[in-house]
Design a protein that fits this description.
Elements lengths: L8 E5 L4 H12 L3 E6 L2 H11 L3 E5 L5 H15 L4 E4 L15 H29 L2 E6 L12 H21 L4 E8 L7 H5 L4 H8 L10 H12 L10 E4 L6
Parallel strand pairs: 1-2, 1-4, 2-3, 4-5, 5-6, 6-7
Length: 250
């Protein structure tokens, strides 16, 4: 069986843990060369080391344009091209009253969840256009489709990401650049405690009870969905906000 991403080069941000780590490893299993980008350089080095020669770690603050440019340059310098850009890095505030979120936290949420998509677009689209196409994928959230109280500013940032995905998809279609996003339900990642307010068995059970398939998401769930959207199997799919949520949005 042919590898689904053979010969392709992918950049994954926030790849030192959680969903990003799952995507980076799954992409590499299917033949891609991967830039493992994260603010946590030690984590990125660990993930890249576990993948092997097909991966290169790079310390990247996605809220800073120059660092995003350096990330894309590193991919082209090492592997000659960029076929897949995954905007996965994210940040949230703790579940609670919207009025209690301070401005610095709000600014960080918008910088990482919103502005980073802009930075990545400016950095990678010209390269993809010269190559004849590419795939841009963003990790949004069910929070952007079915927002619940307690995470208002985070929810809004993910709604922005979904709208940006759809608008970019239409504008970039003539360039053969597909743009999609994933909408995971909360999963076993480092941000889970903030999503719930605190991480207790009781809160986990309450959250699981709201998911028809009866469990939180796992990195492999998201990685498999990302793999399909990034692959040529999804060549006619663009502008989609794919729910990977065990039925949570129903």
């Amino acid at each position: 069986m042919d590898l689904r991403l053979k010969g392709k080069v992918a950049i994954v941000t926030g790849a030192a843990s959680g969903f990003g780590e799952g995507m980076a490893k799954r992409f590499a299993e299917e033949g891609a060369n991967v830039i493992v980008a994260d603010l946590n350089v030690k984590g990125a080095e660990r993930v890249a080391g576990e993948i092997g020669e097909a991966a290169i770690p790079i310390a990247t603050d996605v809220s800073i344009r120059s660092e995003v440019d350096e990330m894309v340059y590193a991919a082209k310098n090492a592997f000659g091209r960029v076929d897949i850009m995954v905007n996965n890095a994210g940040y949230t505030h703790r579940n609670g009253d919207m009025l209690d979120v301070d401005e610095a936290t709000f600014d960080l949420i918008t910088a990482v969840n919103i502005k980073a998509i802009y930075h990545a677009a400016l950095a990678v689209i010209p390269t993809m256009e010269r190559q004849g196409g590419g795939s841009i994928l963003t990790t949004a959230s069910t929070a952007g489709l079915r927002p619940r109280p307690g995470l208002t500013w985070y929810n809004a940032s993910k709604g922005w990401a979904i709208t940006a995905t759809k608008s970019m998809a239409v504008e970039l279609a003539p360039k053969n650049i597909r743009v999609n996003c994933l909408c995971p339900v909360a999963g076993e990642t480092g941000m889970l405690a903030k999503f719930m307010g605190e991480d207790t068995p009781e809160l986990r059970e309450k959250f699981r009870a709201s998911i028809p398939l009866g469990r939180l998401s796992q990195p492999l769930d998201i990685a498999n969905a990302a793999l399909w959207l990034a692959s040529d199997e999804a060549a006619f799919i663009t502008g989609v906000a794919l729910e990977v949520d065990g039925g949570r949005c129903i």
